[in-house]
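Please decode residue identities from the backbone states below.
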């Protein structure tokens, strides 16, 4: 890779977040996790990401709502 790729992994299931983050990190991605759409938006405001992998069905702000807000950022 010519540069580090930053990935934000968003899912309300803790075990899935942990497992996926480990896999992504082992493959050389700089991986950050968030447990909700709201947390993902806050993380993106603090630290820009290259890729967001997000669950659609989450309590509170779902993936569709979060994506609409992410596009504004």
């Amino acid at each position: 890779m010519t540069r580090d790729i930053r990935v934000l992994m968003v899912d309300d299931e803790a075990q899935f977040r942990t497992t996926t983050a480990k896999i992504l990190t082992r493959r050389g991605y700089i991986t950050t996790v968030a447990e909700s759409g709201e947390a993902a938006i806050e993380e993106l405001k603090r630290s820009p990401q290259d890729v967001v992998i997000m669950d659609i069905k989450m309590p509170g702000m779902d993936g569709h709502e979060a994506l609409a807000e992410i596009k504004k950022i």
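Observation: The chain has a mean pLDDT of 93.
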